[in-house]
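Predicting holo structure, PRP bound.
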Amino acid sequence: MSEVHILNHPLILHKLSLMREKNTNTKSFRELLTEISMLMGYEVTRDFPTKTIRIETPIREMEAPILAVEDIVIVPILRAGLGMTDGLLQLMPAAKVGHIGLYRDETTHTPVEYYCKLPKESVDSEVIVVDPMLATGGSAVAALDFLKQRGCKSIRFMCLVAAPEGIKVLQDAHPDVDIFVAAVDECLNENCYIVPGLGDAGDRIFGTK
Ligand code: PRP
Ligand code: URA
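Done. Tokens:
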């Protein structure tokens, strides 16, 4: 079974509370999400392997650790996952970015795919899938299905707020994919929105409501 890492650092929780507040405007919401993504990225990458190389400091030579990963690919689930991408790119500027376009059908709440474009390196990369909301889990499961069909092997999933229902669905479908989340909320409502949640993440990031 995959691990659920709850990244409840005080700075993350403080910023998340500001995001949840319904009067927080689009600009602030977006900036906070970028800041939280950077903070979460620090933990999401904690087990990345390192190797040492010989370097020369101004004082003497030393064996210095550097990352030993082939490539890092960040995969936002469109649209809202885009809001978590810049923060991670600030930490890992050489990372590649793949995109998976999914939206939830408003009646059935099941995911509908409309776009998928991945870097060719994805197969041998450390892949970080990002989406602020894990509600029913349908979108996350579908995105991970696509990635595995295309050969990706090492995948982790990073989200901001999750419902317990979504975590269970994701763990059952992809027991090899660790989940990194800032807060696990109470439940889903009748429209499959997370309660208390923060509303529609895509609309709040892009100002479409
Ligand atoms: C939201 C969110 C997730 C999905 C989560 O996207 O960003 O992708 O819902 O819900 P689920 O766990 O029940 O699948 P939405 O479908 O609203 O699309 P958008 O990002 O384009 O607004
Ligand atoms: N998608 C969102 O943007 N918010 C939710 O609460 C659930 C799904």
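The first helix runs from residue 10 to 20.
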